């Protein structure tokens, strides 16, 4: 393996060694040197590569497994996961950031971008009157060119005037909102449920109609209140929820 794709941990840096190993492994995966589905080197080999103890290495591997980048199989070894977004305890980030953190190549296809009026669900979520104008952004989300989900975001026009000009934002929606309006998310509330995928969404997600999928409703707020209501339909085989329960 070429050392050009990663750097060994530096004990003079303030970051813990396990964190530096994490970032090094993430860099290797992003570079394609360890492609999706491939088995990564055994622990003893990794310890030599990174110059760390087995305890430090296992700490890094466990974190990357929890984040969905790696998959450990008992008796077989550790593998690079296929495109899968893992939901659980995490920072408030955009889809673009989450995908990047998992080492996946982020992709998006715009399905709809324009004005509409808030229905009862959107009005309640955004704390506006039903029928008020909202910007609607509907996108097919991809990870490593594979469809993961369909996200439909609604933003109250009163918070984002002239958002339709000059056109749909490229990249992260949150970055565009921060840059243009000073809107920065501070909290998001999510509700997860399972539902059957309709024919239109199924075709976009490359699934048979009626396949179960996760439906995620997300209300995101800044210091002034809710500014985004998003409904996502996520493929069940590429979207995973994990929780840690403590007494």
UniProtKB/TrEMBL annotation:
Alphabetized UniProt keyword annotations: DNA-binding, Transcription, Transcription regulation
Pfam families from the UniProt entry: GntR (PF00392), UTRA (PF07702)
Gene3D superfamilies assigned to the protein according to its UniProt record, in alphabetical order: Chorismate lyase-like, Winged helix-like DNA-binding domain superfamily/Winged helix DNA-binding domain
Domain HTH gntR-type: 15-83
CDD domains: WHTH_GntR (cd07377)
PROSITE patterns: HTH_GNTR
Annotated GO MF terms: DNA binding; DNA-binding transcription factor activity
GO BP annotations, alphabetical order: negative regulation of DNA-templated transcription
Protein name: GntR family transcriptional regulator
